[in-house]
Amino acid sequence: MDAQRVFDALGVLVVVLDRQGRITDMNAAAQRLASVPREALVGQPFAAAFLWGGADDAAHRLGEALAAAGDGMSRTLTLRADDHWLDLTVAPLPSDEGAQPGLVVTGVDAGRRVRAEKEARDREDRLRTAKEEAERANRSKANFLAAASHDLRQPAQSLTLFGALLADRLRGHAQMPLVHSLNQAVEALRALLDALLDVARLDAGIVVPDPAPFPLADLLERLRGDYGPRAYGKGLRLHIRPTGAWVHTDAALLERVMRNLLDNALKYTGAGGVLVGCRPRGGVLRIDVVDSGVGVPTDRLEDIFEEFVQLGNAERDRARGLGLGLAVVKRLSRLLGLPVTVRSSPGRGTRFSVEVPMHIASQPAPAGRTWSELDGDCGLALLIDDETLILESLRMVLEQWGWDVLAAPSGEEALRLLEGAERLPDVIIADYRLRHGRTGVEAIRDVHALLGTPIPAVVLTGDTNPDRIREARCSGFAVLHKPVTLSELSTQLTTVRTRPMVAAD
């Protein structure tokens, strides 16, 4: 009797079976689960008593487990009968000598565990679906921006070149202020498109850091010279504290980070000023950009690093940019491994901090790159672009610089022009995206094949699609991104003529 009470007090299901799987005894927990008196269950197969309501697969798996236990091997399994789940262990039951051995089934209600696992799987499925949807949305956004940016860069390129030509020809004219205003508007458009291109370049993975030690003072002095007049024009103070510290990172990319932070500070500061200062901490130099501007709510500090997010600019004032500067900072921070943090008090100002590894041993600053100007000894340029306005504006610019020009709207037309030419071109300038699925890289290679010599070449592209950017870069030719300024074009022409670039195989 005492043994039966212990048997019934167990909180788990216990059922004793004979070798044929028929019930010989059970405890109270098993009887409660079966909802049938003990006497009515004795002699019944376990499956019939506990796997009610069908469940053919469960019955089959239970039969396999019972057979294995009859051969002396324990088995564990989870079975479902209707809406009920059981975690079962089927094992051989030790017996007295001479007695027929039997089986014992122990189990617990697995409903709570199974439901929890199902809820976890459902959550994972929802998260995976949400992630896939977000990735699809990002791809769609990137493709849209690439297409829109390319189409905008085409007329922007023509405006840039025509505006520069007009300013040169009307120098001293009474209408020169109007031309100046026109060129300022074009420059603002160019700045917005360049911000889009920065994001695309970083997403394309073609920006490779070139870390080296350098004195931070040189960079800060350039920032003072460029941003001091802008701050003064807004009635703000710009104070950049001097430092003798050296840091070790990519100087050009760190400068881009600092310029974007200063641009942001000046745009959102209406009174007071902006401070740039440095604090050494161990082997790291913390560079702070502190403003007295509008500030950022605590719950939006992460949002400001996303593309096109501009707090307090619901009217989309273009004077405050496009909302890409801090998105570029975020990407450059990851690329360079330089942590960027932000602290802000709404209505009082914001502090952005960049942590840069210090370089203790002072070394001479690396020599800056210099580019020679076009010396007037120009040659023959072959232009290939299917946009009539761009083709015409490039032709006019080059002719004004003293070049002879062959202008073709396609690679095929360029080959026809060369067949009747009296001399070889000295340089090829081709748009990357031509009609009928052709590219400028293919057109340049066709010209090389026709002439049997690798003419120096420059590829112009208005694409911001990461894949297209990589393709253009991998061509081996010099690449300029539209809209191209006269200075950039002049510099690149000098460079490719003195150091010819041959397409990679």
UniProtKB/TrEMBL annotation:
<dbReference type="Pfam" id="PF00512">
    <property type="entry name" value="HisKA"/>
</dbReference>
<dbReference type="InterPro" id="IPR003594">
    <property type="entry name" value="HATPase_dom"/>
</dbReference>
<feature type="region of interest" description="Disordered">
    <location>
        <begin position="115"/>
        <end position="134"/>
    </location>
</feature>
<protein>
    <recommendedName>
        <fullName>histidine kinase</fullName>
        <ecNumber>2.7.13.3</ecNumber>
    </recommendedName>
</protein>
<dbReference type="InterPro" id="IPR003661">
    <property type="entry name" value="HisK_dim/P_dom"/>
</dbReference>
<dbReference type="InterPro" id="IPR000014">
    <property type="entry name" value="PAS"/>
</dbReference>
<dbReference type="InterPro" id="IPR001789">
    <property type="entry name" value="Sig_transdc_resp-reg_receiver"/>
</dbReference>
<dbReference type="Pfam" id="PF02518">
    <property type="entry name" value="HATPase_c"/>
</dbReference>
<dbReference type="InterPro" id="IPR036097">
    <property type="entry name" value="HisK_dim/P_sf"/>
</dbReference>
<keyword id="KW-0808">Transferase</keyword>
<keyword id="KW-0418">Kinase</keyword>
<feature type="domain" description="Response regulatory">
    <location>
        <begin position="380"/>
        <end position="497"/>
    </location>
</feature>
<dbReference type="InterPro" id="IPR035965">
    <property type="entry name" value="PAS-like_dom_sf"/>
</dbReference>
<keyword id="KW-0597">Phosphoprotein</keyword>
<dbReference type="InterPro" id="IPR013656">
    <property type="entry name" value="PAS_4"/>
</dbReference>
<dbReference type="InterPro" id="IPR004358">
    <property type="entry name" value="Sig_transdc_His_kin-like_C"/>
</dbReference>
<feature type="domain" description="PAS">
    <location>
        <begin position="1"/>
        <end position="44"/>
    </location>
</feature>
<dbReference type="InterPro" id="IPR036890">
    <property type="entry name" value="HATPase_C_sf"/>
</dbReference>
<dbReference type="InterPro" id="IPR011006">
    <property type="entry name" value="CheY-like_superfamily"/>
</dbReference>
<dbReference type="Pfam" id="PF00072">
    <property type="entry name" value="Response_reg"/>
</dbReference>
<dbReference type="Pfam" id="PF08448">
    <property type="entry name" value="PAS_4"/>
</dbReference>
<feature type="domain" description="Histidine kinase">
    <location>
        <begin position="147"/>
        <end position="360"/>
    </location>
</feature>
<dbReference type="InterPro" id="IPR005467">
    <property type="entry name" value="His_kinase_dom"/>
</dbReference>
<feature type="modified residue" description="4-aspartylphosphate">
    <location>
        <position position="431"/>
    </location>
</feature>
